[in-house]
């Protein structure tokens, strides 16, 4: 998932650090792990203890329990965010235990998402970074004040080392546990500013190469609890049969055979389908298959055929007389292009793609009176509270969300449809929890896919081949019109997440970006990299086309266009050295691409070969250099880049959702093709930290450059054959070769 909101931080107030000694939230117990000599671990939630703020508790034995406010979906955020608090409070990482924060946006909301609890957009570390470091700094101040009173010494004579307050003059010291056991919290609370943050030359944990992720041990030993693992007393199971076409409703329901399945307790008509409740998963599955439903046929989605619409989008993009919403304007690009000696004018397109999380959509809900409790692998606890309240007719404050581990998210689990399933069925059997698990077919055929989109790019070149104007038109439906309508309207009909990445840092004198919405009714959603995943495809391939027209090396052209961007130049120069850019390969070629998405600089080079008989592309190796600003967890950044490159290569080569007359044609991994392990390239990553603030996002940074790098490599291998349509299916490659 991504978004087009500007990062902002908010001042920390007394309310933000409210001392709530007896009001700690209960998170999902992930299994009690023994203290690991390698560092912190996850743990069940605790109550009581020395609680200087809502974020942490210190026990008498020195254990520091820190809340993690974001959803852990394999990206390592459950380590990264608590680590920031631990750094500035001078905690001993070996004594830290991490607990998933409860659903409480007032305490644990992300400043980068306007204070809601939502994980996505590569925004978690960026959004929480400053705030959590200040939490740690204030905690340290509180501990020092408590210790000063206990030792009867001036607070300015005290220093800290991990989990210990030291008074060097007398040789005395107190462990944090001793302070917790006997110390009094200062009143009023002590305030902190940026000046109280630990300087980078004293960091112990930020940038540390040896700290392991806290979620890994439980995933290895089997104690980790994902949403699909939740088990509660007296629990029922649910399944929902959805219409084959979005927007249709059940007209008649024949549930006689379904009701006869042993273990089935309820059949529940819903506005969007039919729910089944039973004693076992197997019973609900059998009953679901036996339902006989006559669906309405009035949905506008019945006219949705993706291939036809994509051609329509391309035509709209080419129709320059059809104005779009201005996403950005720098100079007069249209006039500059009209006067240019050479004009490059090309189209780039991408199909719908599915999230394909390994853990399908699921949620468990319990409705009791006017209260609701939910256990779910959700990226958005705040949104979950709102939707559950709407379904049950209660208020969000009476909805408790237990966020479990996520078996993949990619923006899909920021949606609420699977939550609504569980709450709707639990409402029908108040007092008993109901777990709903989507089948893989449900998941593939009822997703919230990345938008279908077409891009039309015009670039004007002067007589020396220099860029004088760049016009970029993006045609797609809107995600924000459905998910954040007020934001969409306030931006004048511009969807900044759909056009994200189109604004680049190349030195171009005149640059215009336009968004043209095509509303065809299908629900589209946030996807791994969303807009930047396809806008950088168009941009980086066009840069290579300009290099070819100018007769210069593609790496050299990028360095020229980024002459005032030292961090960008550094990653490009580094990756070129890593890949030995100038070395010739027999039967293979290299392609390069660069991205500054999410505030991080990333350059990638792909080595590919091509079977000209079949049209199949093979990616053998990928080199990557990335500068995220402050590298909080360098090893994890490397892992995330590998994830993004693998996923990006998969979507560039294989992944597509085809819709014909409103019906999704793919249904499982036999028809929704993803990259296999045997097809994964060898990947080498170099992390180049820049110790400065603001910090860049990293979760989705690896994806945008890999597709264009592959396409550019194919062009170099074939003497200029350009691939302009994601995914690069063999038949599309052959068509390009034979054009």
TrEMBL record:
- Known InterPro entries for this protein? Ald_Oxase/Xan_DH_a/b, AldOxase/xan_DH_MoCoBD1, AldOxase/xan_DH_MoCoBD2, AldOxase/xan_DH_Mopterin-bd_sf, N-heterocyclic_Hydroxylase, OxRdtase_Mopterin-bd_su_IorB, TAT_signal
Q: What is its EC number?
A: 1.3.99.16
| GO MF annotations in UniProt | isoquinoline 1-oxidoreductase activity
One Pfam match, given by its short name, reads MoCoBD_2
**Any idea which UniProt keywords this protein has?**
Membrane, Oxidoreductase, Transmembrane, Transmembrane helix
The keyword Membrane is assigned to this record: yes
Q: Which domain of life is it from?
A: Bacteria
Keyword Ribonucleoprotein belongs to the record? no
Which parts of the sequence belong to the Aldehyde oxidase/xanthine dehydrogenase a/b hammerhead domain? 221-299
| Transmembrane domains' residue ranges | 12-34
Q: What is this protein called?
A: Isoquinoline 1-oxidoreductase beta subunit
At the highest ranks, the source species' classification is: Bacteria, Pseudomonadati, Pseudomonadota, Alphaproteobacteria, Hyphomicrobiales
């Amino acid at each position: 998932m991504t978004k087009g909101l500007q990062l902002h931080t908010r001042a920390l107030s007394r309310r933000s650090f409210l001392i709530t000694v007896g009001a700690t939230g209960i998170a999902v117990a992930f299994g009690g792990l023994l203290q690991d000599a390698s560092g912190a671990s996850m743990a069940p939630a605790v109550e009581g203890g020395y609680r200087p703020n809502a974020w942490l508790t210190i026990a008498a034995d020195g254990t520091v329990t820190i809340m993690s406010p974001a959803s852990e979906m394999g990206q390592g955020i459950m380590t990264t965010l608590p680590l920031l608090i631990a750094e500035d409070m001078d905690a001993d990482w070996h004594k830290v235990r991490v607990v998933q924060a409860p659903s409480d946006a007032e305490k644990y909301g992300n400043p980068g998402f306007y204070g809601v609890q939502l994980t996505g957009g590569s925004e978690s570390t960026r959004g929480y970074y400053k705030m959590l470091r200040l939490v740690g700094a204030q905690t340290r101040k509180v501990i020092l004040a408590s210790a000063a009173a206990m030792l009867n010494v001036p607070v300015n004579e005290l220093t800290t080392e991990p989990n210990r307050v030291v008074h060097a003059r007398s040789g005395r010291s107190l462990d944090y546990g001793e302070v917790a056991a006997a110390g009094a919290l200062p009143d009023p609370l002590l305030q902190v500013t940026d000046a109280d943050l630990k300087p980078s030359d004293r960091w112990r944990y930020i940038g540390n190469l040896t700290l392991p992720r806290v979620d890994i041990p439980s995933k290895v030993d089997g104690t980790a609890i994902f949403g699909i693992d939740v088990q509660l007393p007296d629990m029922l199971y649910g399944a929902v049969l959805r219409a084959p076409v979005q927007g249709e409703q059940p007209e008649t329901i024949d549930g006689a055979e379904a009701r006869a399945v042993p273990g089935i307790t309820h059949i529940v008509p819903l506005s969007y389908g039919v729910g089944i409740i039973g004693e076992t998963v197997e019973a609900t599955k059998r009953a679901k298959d036996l339902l006989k439903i006559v669906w309405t046929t009035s949905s506008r989605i019945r006219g949705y055929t993706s291939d036809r619409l994509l051609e329509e989008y391309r035509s709209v993009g080419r129709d320059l007389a059809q104005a779009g919403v201005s996403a950005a304007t720098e100079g007069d690009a249209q006039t500059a292009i009209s006067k240019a000696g050479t004009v490059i004018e090309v189209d780039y397109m991408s199909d719908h793609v599915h999230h394909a999380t390994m853990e399908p959509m699921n949620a468990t809900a319990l409705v009791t009176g006017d209260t609701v409790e939910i256990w779910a692998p959700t990226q958005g606890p705040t949104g979950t509270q709102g939707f559950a309240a709407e379904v049950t007719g209660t208020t969000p404050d009476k909805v408790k969300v237990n966020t479990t581990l996520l078996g993949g998210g990619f923006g899909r689990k920021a949606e609420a449809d699977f939550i609504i399933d569980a709450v709707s069925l639990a409402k029908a059997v108040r007092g008993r929890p109901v777990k709903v698990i989507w089948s893989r077919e449900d998941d593939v055929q009822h997703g919230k896919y990345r938008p279908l989109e077409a891009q039309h790019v015009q670039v004007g070149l002067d007589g020396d081949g220099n860029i004088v104007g760049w016009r970029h038109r993006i045609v797609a439906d809107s995600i924000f019109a459905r998910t954040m309508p007020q934001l969409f309207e306030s931006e004048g009909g511009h969807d900044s997440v759909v056009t994200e990445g189109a604004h680049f840092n190349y030195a171009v004198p005149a640059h215009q970006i336009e968004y043209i919405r095509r509303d065809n009714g299908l629900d589209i959603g946030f996807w791994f990299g969303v807009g930047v995943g396809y806008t950088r495809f168009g941009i980086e391939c066009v840069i290579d086309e300009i290099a070819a027209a100018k007769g210069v090396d593609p790496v050299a052209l990028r360095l020229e266009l980024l002459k005032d961007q030292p961090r960008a130049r550094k990653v490009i120069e580094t990756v070129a050295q890593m890949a030995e850019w100038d070395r010739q390969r027999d039967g293979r070629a290299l392609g390069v691409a660069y991205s500054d998405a999410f505030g991080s600089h990333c350059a990638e080079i792909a080595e590919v070969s091509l079977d000209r008989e079949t049209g199949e592309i093979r990616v053998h190796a990928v080199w990557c250099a990335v500068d995220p600003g402050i590298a909080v967890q360098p090893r994890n950044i490397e892992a995330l880049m590998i994830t993004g490159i693998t996923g990006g290569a998969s979507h560039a080569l294989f992944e597509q959702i085809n819709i014909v007359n409103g019906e999704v044609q793919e249904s499982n991994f036999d028809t929704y093709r993803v990259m296999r392990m045997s097809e994964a390239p060898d990947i080498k990553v170099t992390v180049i930290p820049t110790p400065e603030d603001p910090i860049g996002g990293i979760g989705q940074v690896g994806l945008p450059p890999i597709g264009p790098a592959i396409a550019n490599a194919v062009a170099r291998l074939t003497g200029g054959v350009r691939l302009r349509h994601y995914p690069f299916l063999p038949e599309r490659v052959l068509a390009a070769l034979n054009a």
